[in-house]
Amino acid sequence: MRHPAFVVLCLSGAVVLSACQKNSDAQVQRALKDVNVVDETNLNEVMMTVADPNEAVSYFTRTLQQNPDRIDLMRGLARSLTRAQKPTEAAQVWRKAVAHKDSTPDDRVMLADALIRSNQWAEAKAELNQIPPTHETFDRYRLEAMVADSDRNWKKADSFYEIASGLTTTPAGVLNNWGFSKLTRGDAGGAEKLFTEALTYDPGLFTAKNNLVLARAAQRKYDLPVVRMTQVERAELLYSMALAAIKQGDVSVGKSLLNQAIETHPQHFEAAVRSLQALDANVKT
């Protein structure tokens, strides 16, 4: 009579063991899923930032085909297309992200960025106009400044550049853009100040160094500014200054600067040599 009870106990134990096994399996699956999510998040970040842009495009295209409703993959693909110098395609993907139910104002900002990169200024302006005024970010005001520049609305451009530079701890790039805007308007003195300020934040930004030299040359200041530079950079800056001087009619100054650039460069400075030869040929004729 004890056997049935024993069988029942065994069966009960088996059921409990089975339930425990199922619970254990479920916990393992959940843990693996969590690990996969972390791994995928890390991989997505790597693809968007340091991976080869074309490889990143292939990865996000393939992954998005498998998960067509995931906005994070849309963003990854769009950013990767931008890095791959394909802004028109990036804009198409950003439009899909903007239409997604989980879209944020930042998605529209990035759409505007892609449109500007693909030279679609009117479309970019239209997208920026749809962003609520309460969305105050560096990227938004950086793009607003660029659009105002394209419209030659200098007062608005200056306002947006100033706001943008105050919304980031690394304003060198936007200060450089602002300075270039001033330079194109003919305000070389104002441009010089902004390029100099940009270099206080990023002393290695060669674009700002070159623009600073051009701003100074526009004021007929034909000496190099006191900024950190390599020997190659010094030669290239002298070359830029020389061309600016020649363009302004200061030919003798330009010729002297070309000679300095050639002598300064640690290697053969082909572009400067050609310019000097062309200048000598024109003088002789």
UniProtKB/TrEMBL annotation:
It holds the Pfam family TPR_6. It comes from Rhodobacter calidifons. SMART domains: TPR (SM00028). The lineage of its organism: Bacteria, Pseudomonadati, Pseudomonadota, Alphaproteobacteria, Rhodobacterales. This is Tetratricopeptide repeat protein.
